[in-house]
Structures are given as structure tokens and as C-alpha cells.
Amino acid sequence: MVFPKPDVFISEHDWQRLQRLVAHYPDHEAIDWLESELDRATVCLPNELPADAVQLGSVVRFQLSSSGQVYLRELVLPEQRQHDEHISVLSPVGMALLGLRVGDEIAWPSSPGQSTTVRILDVKQDRELWTEPAPDVSVQTL
């Protein structure tokens, strides 16, 4: 099933950081996708940003339709990715997560000629707010 692209909400601070990322990695294979998402994003001041919008540094619980698995990851810049609990904003799933809100679903290219649907289950802006995944949910590594 293909879903229309949901609205994307990005903080003004993250938008500026991501524009610098685009300028720094002009030849990266994912830059065109990231630019497209930035172009369609609603850029918000801090007090206007929806609390459940995935931002850089957000900890996100999401599900991929291709496997049905649920993942818990922190969205980070490529140079901040230090372990498996991080997901780079330049990865296919990382870009899909950017700016979405709880309940949003988006079809996103996962590999050449294939796509998966990413569904946002929960978003926390502060890693310390997480205690554990919701009951009865298996959290897997990407």
C-alpha cells in the first residue's frame, strides 16, 4: 500500500544544520532525497514545533513494513553515529523518519527498485525519558 507523503516538521535549527550537511556532502547518493524533504518541510520556531515531530537527537520507535520489526533509534548526523542505537539522517530510513510525527506512515526507497513503509510509533526528544519499549513489542537492530 502506498501512502501519501505526510507533512514534515523541522526546527529552524535542524533545518540550518541539514542545509550545511547538504553543502558538505554534495555528491552523497542521498543528498537529492534530503534536499527534497527539506524543500517540502514546514520550518518551525521552537515554540511552534509539534512535540512529537522527529528531529535530530530524537529517540524514535518505528516499524518497517518490509519486516514488521519495531526499532528504537536516535536520529543523528552522520558524524555522530557511534553505535547501533543511532541512525544517520543520511540513511534511507533516517531520512524517512525526519520531521514525521507519531502515527505518520511513509513509503520510502529501501534499496534499488524496492521500498518499505516506515510507521512512527513513538518519539521522545530526550533519551532519558525512555525506560523501555512498550510491552509486547520486540525491538530489533537494523
- Overall geometry comes to globular
Looking at the structure, the CATH topology is: Chitinase A, domain 3
Beta fraction: 25-35%
The biggest sheet amounts to:
6 strands, mixed
Percent helix range: 10-25%
* Helix/sheet category: alpha/beta
- The CATH superfamily is identified as Transcription elongation factor, GreA/GreB, C-terminal domain
Please write the CATH class name: Alpha Beta
Number of helices: 3
GO molecular function, one term: RNA polymerase binding
Protein name: Nucleoside diphosphate kinase regulator
Pfam families: GreA_GreB (PF01272), Rnk_N (PF14760)
Domain Transcription elongation factor GreA/GreB C-terminal: 50-124
Short description:
Strand 3 and strand 4 form a beta hairpin.
Descriptive notes:
The chain is α/β, with parallel strands linked by helices and 142 residues long. It has one domain (9-130): Chitinase A, domain 3 (Roll), CATH 3.10.50.30. 20% of the residues lie in helices and 30% in strands. It has helices at residues 12-24, 31-40, 92-97; strands spanning 9-11, 42-44, 59-64, 70-76, 86-88, 105-111, 114-124, 139-140. The strands form 2 sheets. Strands 3, 4, 5, 6, 7 and 8 form a 6-stranded mixed β-sheet that branches. It is globular, with a radius of gyration of 14 Å.
Helix-strand layout with pairing:
Layout: E1 9-11, H1 12-24, H2 31-40, E2 42-44, E3 59-64, E4 70-76, E5 86-88, H3 92-97, E6 105-111, E7 114-124, E8 139-140
Parallel strand pairs: 1-2, 4-5, 4-8
Antiparallel strand pairs: 3-4, 3-7, 6-7
Protein name: Nucleoside diphosphate kinase regulator
Domain Regulator of nucleoside diphosphate kinase N-terminal: 6-43
Pfam family, one: Rnk_N
